[in-house]
Design a protein that fits this description.
Two copies of one chain form a homodimer. Chain A has about 500 residues and is α/β, with parallel strands linked by helices. In chain A, about 30% of the residues lie in helices and about 25% in strands. Strand 3 of chain A pairs antiparallel with strand 4 of chain B.
């Protein structure tokens, strides 16, 4: 058993093949960029195929290969299930599923695992039934969890080689020029899919909206595409994109957001031209509203916002409170309309967004990021992957990427949820190491990472109660008691790669 | 001596290393895409360097390596000379210069060749003094001439590996996000530069217009850039982009253009949604005007135009006569303003434009292309490279790419220029093989390639005199006599790669 820099125990065989986490910037990346196979297309050749099955056949997909999908269609996705059903029906087995993430709608994966069609998985996250099945040991091989930037890194370094990418696209032309902003079932940015298209050997665009050549804007270019298949429907528009998320009316969440806004505006980063990212969770969404009010009052404009992005931020763009947004994933209808219509809303790839092994990621330039947590511990390590029962139900996402890149990272969380403390002695699973976390913001007050003496000084007169992280933990335990330890078996069901490719943690099988 | 499919003699050693031309679609391309070296950038790292010299040092440039530049700045370029002077001053020698093309302004190259700084060149073209020096044998190794698509193919297949790309950019941010549409000295599309940035080991952006992060639109993304250098001036705006070229008033050129327009509108490709490319030469520019008139009269709109592109076509875009333009090179101020302001004017890379070894090029989708010629022979082979004296003065450009891709290719030329026939028995140098050429259009009438029986039938009632190509040649010779043969030495000064990488011809040293 090896121990990594934050004291997590990593079984020797995995430690040897992946390396163990040694610090957020410890690993240096020098390599020849990976690349895909090309079969040249001659004038007159057609890329149009009649069915998913024909595309699978033409792609040369065989037992043991790696297939990829993107998760821009979220709970509305029909593509992954449609393709995997066909693959299973054709008798192809022993595949690695390398989806950028996996949603609840992808429950049929469980049967494909049982039937030996899927024997390895790498993903940002695993939800509900799939997560539970994995946590109960359904797979022989552990799932590899990667952050969005980590996945891009793994692909560009050749650690994750995609044989065939099946990429759903809300619009495409006959040569495969595709985007997510036009069509019947739009998803906005195709930021994750772009990386797969660039590096996979075979790339198949699956669309329900074939348009005349050339389709523009071009998220995925024809020179990265082998085949195009038109289907009846790539998914449910209402599952792909929901209307604007209502900002929370929960007083506790609003208080957390207000505290977070006070922290941001008191920080040295809050000035003309600053940049930030804020996600779609309850409190984080509300932060954007409080921050917009503060920016109007202080006559301060942000240079840009980075997304994963909601319509609320796009309204700030329209209002002129934000100069530009650059977007790897559009969360809701408002963001999708914005990327279609506003030239200052610019799509970027996942590699551009967060690849820690590349020639520079957008997260590196970020001033402030507002994040959430399932748990955070007294070393400031954050868990967004496993529940209080130890079962996988979350996603790594861009959490560790943005926390490592941003100059100021805030973790917003209530001190308890129901009867469960969120500030704990040791988190079940570490996704983001404590050294990347600057301030924990709760309804009771904040705790600043003692490593950030500059911030402790900057916040000396802040109008928010300040505690040590241990004090916050004690307050949580005082309300709900010390949580019972989770009983795990030895078997490792998931490997948690840090964004640099080393192992920051593992998830073990929960005892039945 | 080997002979290729069109009877051109290729010295054995070159035939063996490159292969010889066997037909426009003969070569099949199956390969693993090349890739560049990556040195990972960590949050807090700066890419900004203080000088060109510091960038050369940091890039690790050494004797024998390959450096690249783009030619989007045309006769206004200051970057190539500035960088090469510094390289020469640092004592680095024996370099391969892989510029996408070479202009008159690049005459200092001659000294760098004489001094052993540059010992190999690959380029689309060579003008005036550099071309003459090469033709007179100044270099030991032959220059490799590649079409725009052929260069992209050579880079993507790894036949041309770029160690360091020095890419001038009219605007960039501190992380290297660059475009050509904003700044003091704009050039529009950065289509050629994009390929270099993607595949070179080290990429240096040289700009005179540093803007706040993130610079958008993004032609070259930060994750393809190692360093950024700010200089006083990347070049002369008036040399980079001239105002709209006046359409010719030469009656002979207008007659050729009118004949070409009649050919296009009588062809089966002239219908709603058709596509075309027309360059910037005298007659070709006038074709756009005649074609616009016809399209208005016939209520026909083009789906898209492909560029290399002038402001005249952008006016047709504004008017709604063309639905979209996709652009790898913006020829004039009108085109540059258009790519900045019109969302239907979309930038594409040279690989997207014309790479014959990739997963599909834009030229493959083209209905009609209008091209010019220095000479065309009775086998329909076209020369756009060497003058009637056998001296290199032209450029391969996208000539063979578009001719091979388009369903209908027209070559516009007067039958004589001055006292020199343009329709000849054998062209001095073949850039585009006769099988790619469909119709030759002159002031006297047209000659249809006998291989295109469908067109001969379609043009049965065309209101333009029709001849065989031999008849046109006889008419030219009748006026100016049979041209004297050029006396060449044995020494090969340039290898003409067909777009697929095989040798379609060589250029020999002219006798002094």
């Amino acid at each position: 058993m090896a121990q990594n820099q934050i004291g997590r125990e990593i079984p020797q065989k995995f430690a040897e093949s992946f390396g163990v986490f040694e610090g957020q910037y410890a690993k240096k990346h020098e390599y020849k960029r990976a690349s895909g196979q090309v079969a040249g297309v001659t004038p007159g050749d057609s890329k149009m195929l009649g069915s998913i099955r024909e595309a699978i056949t033409k792609s040369g997909l065989k037992d043991g290969m790696t297939v990829s999908f993107h998760h821009h269609f979220r709970e509305g996705d029909a593509v992954l299930n449609m393709v995997m059903a066909e693959i299973a029906d054709m008798g192809i087995r022993n595949l690695t599923l390398a989806s950028s993430s996996i949603a609840n709608v992808h429950d049929p994966i469980i049967d494909h695992i049982r039937n030996g069609v899927i024997t390895n998985i790498t993903s940002s996250g695993l939800r509900d039934r799939v997560g539970a099945a994995i946590s109960h040991g359904i797979m022989e091989n552990p799932v590899v969890i990667r952050s969005h930037g980590g996945r891009a890194r793994a692909i560009e370094k050749g650690e994750l080689h995609i044989d065939v990418a099946f990429l759903g696209a809300p619009s495409s032309d006959c040569y495969g020029n595709a985007n997510g902003s036009h069509g019947k079932a739009t998803c906005g940015s195709l930021g994750y899919a772009r990386v797969d298209a660039e590096f996979a050997d075979k790339v198949i665009i699956i669309t329900d909206n074939l348009v005349p050549y050339p389709n523009t804007p071009i998220s995925i270019p024809q020179n990265h595409v082998d085949y195009v298949v038109v289907v009846e429907s790539i998914g449910d528009p209402n599952g792909i994109a929901k209307g604007a998320t209502r900002i929370t009316s929960n007083p506790k969440e609003l208080l957390i957001a207000e505290n977070a806004c006070k922290v941001i505006t008191a920080s040295p980063y809050y000035k003309e031209g600053f940049s930030f990212q804020a996600g779609s969770g309850g409190s984080t969404l509300a932060v954007a509203r409080f921050l917009a009010d503060a920016m109007r009052k202080d006559s301060i404009k942000a240079g840009y916002a980075l997304g994963g992005l909601t319509g609320h931020l796009c309204e700030m763009l329209e209002e002129g409170l934000i100069g530009k947004v650059i977007d790897t994933q559009s969360f809701d209808r408002g963001a999708i309309d914005s990327i279609k219509n506003n030239a200052n809303h610019y799509e970027i790839s996942a590699s551009f967004y967060a690849n820690p092994g590349g020639k520079g990621a957008a997260v590196d330039q970020l001033d402030v990021v507002v994040l959430s947590a399932l748990e955070i511990d007294t070393d400031f390590n954050v868990n967004v992957m496993t529940g209080s029962d130890g079962v996988i139900r979350g996603a790594s996402g861009g959490h560790s990427d943005t926390a490592a890149g941003a100059k100021l990272s805030l973790i917003l969380t209530p001190i308890i949820r129901g009867r469960i403390p969120t500030i704990v002695e040791k988190v079940n699973t570490v996704i983001t190491p404590g050294e990347s976390v600057d301030v924990v913001v709760t309804e009771l007050g904040i705790a600043v990472n003692p490593g950030r003496k500059d911030l402790i000084e900057a916040f000396a007169k802040l109008d928010v109660p300040q505690f040590t992280i241990e004090e916050l933990k004690e307050k949580a335990y005082a309300v709900v008691g010390t949580p019972d330890p989770i009983i795990y078996d030895e078997k490792v069901v998931a490997l948690i790669e840090y964004r640099d490719g080393s192992l920051i943690d593992v998830v073990r099988k929960v005892r039945d």
